[in-house]
Design goal:
This protein is an alpha+beta fold and about 250 residues long. It contains eight helices and five strands, in the order H-E-E-H-E-H-H-H-H-H-E-E-H. The protein has helices spanning about 1-55, 95-110, 130-145, 150-160, 170-180, 185-195, 200-210, 230-245; strands spanning about 75, 80-90, 115-120, 220, 225. It has a five-stranded mixed beta sheet with strand order 1-3-2-4-5. Strand 2, helix 2 (about 95-110) and strand 3 form a beta-alpha-beta unit. Helix 3 (about 130-145) packs antiparallel against helix 4 (about 150-160).
Length: about 250
Amino acid sequence: MGRKVEEKSKRQQLREERLRRQQRQRITTLLIVVGAVLIIVALLIYPTLQQSLAPAGEIVQITPRPRPNANFNAMGDPNAPVKILEFSDYQCPYCKRFSDQTEPLIVENYVATGKVYFEYIPYGPGGYPIGQESTDAALASFCAGEQGKFWEYHDILFANHTGENVGDYTIKRLEAFAQAIGLNMDQYNQCMKEKRYEDKLNEGIALGRQNNVGGTPSFLINGKLIEGAQPYSVFQQEIEAALAAASGQ
């Protein structure tokens, strides 16, 4: 009788020890899974956290350029005989060249005279933004457009462009640009938080792809595709041809 009780007691001890071991293994496995999840989450949020903590740095200020009949991301007379769509990426150096050198001449000679309606569409090569900074900058420019300052924001973005994915357009710097041009920051920040113009951004990308737009900058002049940061003389020739066609000459 005593031996049976002793064997039963040993079996009970072994069973309890096995249960404790299994419990320790489950806890260890759970801790490993939780640790792995925390590491993954940290890796995902680190770039955003790094951006939010990084200082904005020096900001190149701008002098606002005239944009006749500016309306969000467009300018000029909507009934003008020639319509130009620019497909551009804020991180594209050739897009900056066009913005600095050629666009002012088109505005002065054709937009201001009512002959051209001009619209800027954020776009990347083949429709794919050069990087996250491109997407963030595009959304920020639309948020500025909500407050009637799309073109001022467009200009300060290009004024502060130094390269691709080098930190020119971190969230902190985009906020600094917004402050520099006098935006209502509560409205701007809420707009960015909501990604309010993500659909508008995607619509422009879809439009470019439908029209076989490849690299940036590219332009549709009354539907004709012109690629690259061509000199002003090329745009002048194409615009004059489009004006002649529109007038039936």
